[in-house]
UniProtKB/TrEMBL annotation:
GO cellular component, one term: plasma membrane
Lineage per the UniProt record: Eukaryota, Metazoa, Chordata, Craniata, Vertebrata
Entry's localization field: Cell membrane
Family to which this protein belongs: Belongs to the G-protein coupled receptor 3 family.
Superkingdom: Eukaryota
CDD domains assigned to the protein according to its UniProt record, in alphabetical order: PBP1_CaSR
Organism encoding this protein: Sarcophilus harrisii (Tasmanian devil)
Keyword terms, alphabetized: Cell membrane, G-protein coupled receptor, Glycoprotein, Membrane, Receptor, Signal, Transducer, Transmembrane, Transmembrane helix
Encoding gene (name): LOC100919246
Secretion signal span: 1-26
Entries under SUPFAM superfamilies matching the protein: Periplasmic binding protein-like I
Annotated protein name in UniProt: G-protein coupled receptors family 3 profile domain-containing protein
All residue ranges annotated as the G-protein coupled receptors family 3 profile domain in the record: 546-801
InterPro entries, per the entry: ANF_lig-bd_rcpt, GPCR_3, GPCR_3_9-Cys_dom, GPCR_3_9-Cys_sf, GPCR_3_C, GPCR_3_Ca_sens_rcpt-rel, Peripla_BP_I
Molecular function, one GO term: olfactory receptor activity
Topology within the bilayer: Multi-pass membrane protein
Length: 838
């Protein structure tokens, strides 16, 4: 079967790709890369050198594009014709406004604005070319890439008519590029879903349509015709008008459109509807540019006697005032854009001349068009065109005027819309649009970190890093933020997922994380689980209130013991002081000072050495204290037996008391040494009690050895208590046994209460409980054993005599408690230490 003609096309394309790849490929950085072909023929004004930010602008400097003949060659960017004086005035207004802002000190200080303005020619194609140039930074088709250097583009003012704004804002909206409209009232532009980055400085057609309906209702018109331009402005405007008019029970006689490109059939339909309808009031949504060919038809068919309700786009147009159109449009009513005066604009508009910039082709074309002459040696052709609307044919004649421009022409002699500053409506909108961008940028520049509009952290955007364009999004689920992880949705594609917050102590640092990672043991997750922070370290510090209180109490108690020692030293020759074993008393006082000051080792940040020192010092201190008390109580016990026995009983000699103390301390020392050698206490970071804190405490090492160390102290305390309890019923003047008994009762009550309190607390409060127990037991022993003796020595010195202390004279003052005596029997009576009870 012979191959068909069509089957050879792929072979031809393959042949071209293999043997002629160069037109489709370009060299870039040493390797071949693909690129989109196409160059834009853009005209306008650019001033971007030495400026901080650039503002873009799109204005119709020409009224239309020149249709190109069909060609099999590469498509070219269309050219424009028909100089549009109003658009040129709008362009100059933007330049004037930017210069005014740069001169002001209260807006964008130390920041200058430049501009990049393109001609849209009232055409969507040219507007899109301008938009792509704004996005890419050059006149090539390279979306998603901005290739220009220099100041960033902060926003765009434009693009003029509603159709142009709809087209350009759809593209700019993909990148969330700020756009401020100055002449687009189409209601669809208010839809932030379709146009997320578009704002404008003029009212929407929604408001205008409602106002027109109220106007019609006010005059009692009930039968209305509707005509709209065949673009977004006309279609959406008339659509809203018909919706509003139905709400008030009025009727639309007909609804027709004016074609953007001349079509005799469509024009005839609109003319026929007007002529054959009985409606005498017609609402017309159109721009003055699109209205011009329609007015020629109205004039040709001599349609008079109609009341026209104009939209804001043409109610102030000079077309109405033209003599040839006044019989048809006279009496037209409508709502206009508010007008305003712009200070200094008139002088700026007059300050235009081709000699100021020989490369300014737009100004040269303006001069040639305005004065109907040709600028010498100009490459800009002066042209005139004529549109034959009745036949649908277009004759365009390009010619060079025989009259040469001299440069002496006076702008004051012109009468055109460029120099007409009496009705500045859209022109004022252009100024407001530029100022809207300037004020927004000024607010950005004044943003303070921590008070900005962006989350998290109320951050600011910085002008030096300003990049308004972003890639468009198309996702099932937004990317999970840091602090969350992806969770699979059963039965749905992998692109759809849930963002599950990380558990406490786990974090995800990157957006879109699949797993949460556990923080290091010294760290914990922050509030939103987006990072790990150091855990708070907790211990009983000297600087906090509780630590200061305990330190003060400990030192004060030690000073009280020291004061008791001073009393004993000063009054050492008194009977009561001599009656007590002074060595044991001083050792007992020394042990109490050691115990009280040991509590300071429990306060502050613990270390290995402090963990070892605190328990060992406390155990040795208590063993010295209790062994001294035991030496006293054994002597009391021997005195008690002597008092009860009928046979001679030898008292415990002082050397035996000291041996008891020495042996007890040596045994405790041996136990402590074994404890420190075998398994000593050390610093421990407790991370289990509280997840968000590290509690620094001491690991006591071997519990068995620790129990044996303090168990020996408990054994000594029991011996003290038992011996004094037996000796508590000595004769009336013998009551030191009672004082020691009370002291040991306080000792046991404190430490028995300590156990449940210690086990029920956590963190630094466990240490505080232990310090309270140490201080309470020490102060209890101090008060029960030494307070009564100091009372007799200092307050009741009359009772500090040999007779009373020796028990030879009974006391009658019941308010006095003699704390200690030494009863010496000169008649072979046993000598014993007792307490007198007055």
């Amino acid at each position: 079967m012979a191959p068909t003609k069509k089957s050879g096309v792929p072979l031809l394309l393959l042949f071209l790709l293999v043997f002629f790849p160069d037109p489709l490929m370009t060299e870039g950085d040493g390797e071949q890369t693909c690129r989109l072909l196409g160059k834009f023929d853009l005209h306008g004004y650019v001033e971007s050198t030495n400026h901080s930010l650039i503002i873009g602008g799109m204005f119709p400097i020409h009224s239309r594009i020149i249709p190109e003949n069909e060609s099999i060659l590469e498509p070219v960017s269309p050219r424009c014709e028909g100089f549009y004086f109003r658009g040129f005035r709008w362009t100059k207004t933007m330049i004037h406004t930017i210069k005014e802002i740069n001169e002001r000190k209260d807006i964008l200080p130390n920041i200058t604005l430049g501009y990049q303005i393109f001609d849209t020619c009232f055409a969507v194609s040219k507007s899109m070319e301008s938009t792509l140039s704004f996005l890419t930074g050059q006149d090539e088709h390279k979306p998603n890439f901005r290739c220009s250097a220099g100041a960033p583009l902060a926003g765009v003012v434009g693009a003029g008519g509603s159709s142009l704004s709809v087209a350009t804002s759809r593209l700019l909206g993909l990148y969330y590029f700020p756009q401020v409209g100055y002449a687009s009232s189409c209601s669809v532009l208010s839809d932030k879903y379709q146009f997320p980055s578009y704002v404008r400085v003029m009212a929407s057609d929604q408001s205008q349509s409602k106002a027109i309906v109220q106007l019609i209702k006010h005059f009692g018109w009930v039968w209305i015709g509707a005509i709209a331009a065949d673009d977004d402005y006309g279609k959406y405007g008339i659509k809203i008008f018909k919706e509003e008019i139905e709400k008030v029970n009025l009727c639309v006689a007909f609804s027709e459109t004016i074609p953007k490109i001349y079509s005799k059939a469509k024009m005839q339909n609109a003319i026929w509807a007007i002529k054959n309808s009985t409606a005498k009031v017609i609402v017309l949504y159109s721009s003055d540019i699109d209205l011009s060919p329609f007015l020629l038809e109205i004039e040709y068919h001599d349609i008079r006697g109609r009341t026209w309700i104009a939209s804001e786009a043409w109610i102030t147009s000079s077309l109405i005032a033209k003599p040839e159109y006044f019989p048809y449009l006279g009496g037209a009513i409508g709502f206009a854009v508010p007008r305003a005066d712009i200070k200094g604009l008139k002088e700026f508009l007059y300050d235009v001349h081709p000699n100021k910039d020989p490369n300014d082709n737009i100004t040269i074309e303006f001069w040639q068009t305005a004065f109907n002459c040709t600028w010498p040696n100009s490459s800009v052709p002066y042209n005139s065109d004529h549109r034959v609307n009745m036949t649908g044919q277009e004759d365009r004649i390009y010619f060079t005027s025989d009259k040469l421009c001299t440069g002496e022409e006076k702008l004051e002699d012109l009468e055109n819309t460029y120099l007409d500053v009496s009705q500045l409506r859209i022109t004022n909108n252009v100024k407001n649009a530029v100022y809207a961008l300037a004020y927004a940028l000024d607010e950005m520049s004044r943003c303070e970190e921590g008070r900005g509009p962006y989350l998290p952290g109320n951050t600011c955007a910085y002008l030096e890093d300003f990049e308004p364009w972003q890639l468009p999004k198309s996702v099932c689920t937004e990317l999970c933020r840091p602090g969350t992880r992806k969770g699979i949705r059963q039965g749905e594609p992998i692109c759809c997922f849930d963002c599950i917050p990380c558990a406490d102590g786990h974090v995800s640092l990157q957006p879109g994380s699949r797993e949460c990672n556990k923080c290091h043991e010294d760290y914990w997750s922050n509030e939103d689980n987006s990072g790990c922070v150091l855990k708070e370290v907790e211990f009983l510090a000297y600087s906090e209130a509780l630590g200061i209180t305990l330190v003060t109490l400990s030192i004060f108690s030690a000073l009280v013991v020291l004061a008791v020692t001073v009393v004993y030293v000063v009054y050492r020759k008194t009977p009561l002081a001599k009656a007590n074993d002074r060595e044991l008393s001083f050792l007992l006082q020394l042990s109490l000072i050691i115990i009280l000051l040991t509590s300071l080792l429990f306060i502050g940040k613990p270390y290995d050495w402090s963990c070892k020192a605190r328990q060992v010092t406390l155990a040795l201190g208590f063993s010295l204290c209790l062994s001294c008390i035991l030496g006293k109580t054994i002597r009391l016990y021997s005195s008690h037996r002597a008092s009860k026995s009928k046979v001679r009983f030898t008292s415990v000699r002082p050397i035996c008391q000291k041996l008891i103390v020495l042996v007890s301390v040596l045994i405790e020392t041996g136990l402590c040494t074994a404890y420190l050698v075998i398994m000593p206490p050390k610093l421990y970071k407790n991370m289990e009690s509280q997840t968000i804190k590290i509690i620094l405490e001491c690991n006591e090492g071997s519990i068995e050895l620790l129990c044996s160390v303090f168990g020996f102290d408990v054994f000594l305390a029991l011996l003290c208590f038992l011996t004094t309890f037996v000796a508590r019923k000595l004769p009336d003047n013998y009551n030191e046994a009672k004082c020691v008994t009370f002291g040991m009762l306080v000792f046991f009550i404190v430490w028995i209460s300590f156990v449940p309190a210690y086990l029920s607390t956590k963190g630094k409060f466990k240490v505080a409980v232990e310090i309270f127990a140490i201080l309470a037991s020490s102060i209890g022993l101090l008060g029960c054993i030494f307070a009564p003796k100091c009372y007799i020595i200092l307050i009741r010195p009359k009772r500090n005599t040999d007779e009373i202390v020796g028990g030879q004279v009974p006391t009658t003052d019941r308010s006095i408690q003699l704390t200690s005596t030494s009863v010496s029997s000169e008649m072979n009576v046993t000598v014993s230490t007792v307490v007198l009870d007055d």
